[in-house]
Specification:
Elements lengths: L1 H16 L8 H17 L2 E8 L2 E13 L4 E6 L4 E5 L3 E6 L2
Antiparallel strand pairs: 1-2, 1-5, 2-3, 3-4
Amino acid sequence: MMLEQLIQLKQDLIDGSKVEKPSLDDKQIDEMDILVSEALEFNKELKFKLFNKGFVENVTGRVHYINFEQQKLHVKDQNDNTVYINMNNIIRVIYND
């Protein structure tokens, strides 16, 4: 019984930390598209804020490929690992100055 209560308490804490996905308007989406395209062309580093199952994650890296068919960006992070970002999960993009 104690283990079940602990598991439930932990799940309640996780659920309480979740946020709703912000909605983006067309202008914000267009601005992010331009920023990503420019970063790809000029090899600039970007900071992405991503929505993932109720939580916000940060990824910093350079866009190496845009897969329009799968709606994913291939990003090389600062450790030279490839991160695949679902375009629908992006909630903010800025240059990493």
